[in-house]
Amino acid sequence: VSDQKPLGCWSVKHGQIITCPVVCNFETHEYIAVHDDKVLRIWKNKDINLDKVFKATLSADVYRIHSLPNGGPVVLFKGGGVRTLDVLLEAPQQEIENIISDEVIKWSAAFMEGQQPVLIFATEKDGDFFVYTQKLKMNSLHKYKLEQQELAKPLSFTAYIKNQIITLLCLYSNDSVYKILIPLQQNTEEEEQILSKSLLLNLSVSGSVLKGTSFVVLDKDHIAVLGSLAASGEESKECLTIWNTKFQTLQTSKELPLGTSGQLWCYEEKFFFTHGKVLTVIMYKCETSSLAAAVGKLKDSQTPDVSSFVNWNTLGDEELVVSFQSQQSVPLKSESKMTLRSKRNTVAKVQPDTLSVGQLLLNLK
C-alpha cells in the first residue's frame, strides 16, 4: 500500500527518547510510556499531544513496565526495585531500593498466580547469569544463579507459570533450548541456589542449524523460534520456525527474505513480527501433539505436508476485524452457553411423542 494512514499516532518532543515499550493499562484503558528513563507519561486514546498529558518524574531509571490483565501495571526499575503503578503514583519521587547494583537486567516477565502478581527477571554480571522471582503482595524476593554452560551463554528467555511453578526456557548460543523449573513456594531463609537446567531441544535438523534470536512458547509441546537457518556451505536465511519439543522435530518453517528485527511476539494464537518495514500478523493453531503429526504422516493427509500447522497467509483487513470482534465477544459466548442450557432444559421437559420432526430439528439447532 503506497498511501498508508495511521489510525493513531503519538510522538514525543525532539530529543526525547522512549526508553521502554509502551503498555496498555487494561483496567483504565490508558497507555503508559517512559521516556528518558525516568519520565512517566499516561494518556488515553483521544489525547493527541503528549506534552499535555499526565507526566511524573521518577527518582530512578525504569527498565520495563508490565501490564497484567487483573493485577494492574507493575514497574521494574533498572536497580531491581519493583512497584505497582498505583503505589508509584502516590509518591513519584519515593526512593527506590537498589537490589542489583552491579548486575544488568537482560529480560523480565510478569504473571498472575491466582490473585498474586509475580515478577521474574534475569540479570548478568561478568558472564554469570542470575534469576530473581518476586511476589508483589507478599514482598518476597528470591535470587538464583543459573548453572553455567561451557562455551555458551543465554541469548533469549521466555517463561510461563503453572501450579506454583515457573518454567523458564532459555535459548543459548550453542543453538539449544534449555528448561529450568523454579518453584514459587520457597523458604525465605535459604541462600542463593544454583538452578540446574535440562536440554529441551537442539535447533538442528538434517545438517541445517538454526541460529535463533528470539522465541515464544505456543503450548506444552511446541515453541516458535525466529532466527537464521543455515545448511553447511549454504547462505543463511532468516525464517520463522515451529518445533515440536516432545518429539524433537521441526514442524514447519517460513522463509523471511526481507529480514526481521529479530523480535517475535505471540498473543491469542497469532504471531507478531516485523518483516521488512511491515508488522506481520500470522494465525496458527496447535493440534494435539502426536508422533504421526510430528513426522507429517497424519492419516487424513495424502502428502506429508506439515505446513497446515500455520496459515502462512498474513491476515487481511477483513480477517483482522473478524478476529478482533470474536475476541471482544467472549462474554457473549458464555451468555449463549447459558441460553443453550436453559433451552436444553425446556426441551427435556417436553414429552418426546409430542414433538414434530421439525420442532425437534429446531430444538437441536
From TrEMBL:
One GO MF term: RNA binding
Domain Nucleolar protein 11 N-terminal: residue ranges: 1-285
Superkingdom to which the source organism belongs: Eukaryota
InterPro entries: NOL11 (IPR042859), NOL11_N (IPR012584), WD40_repeat_dom_sf (IPR036322)
Single GO BP term: maturation of SSU-rRNA
One GO cellular component term: nucleolus
Protein name: NOL11 protein
Organism the protein comes from: Fregata magnificens (Magnificent frigatebird)
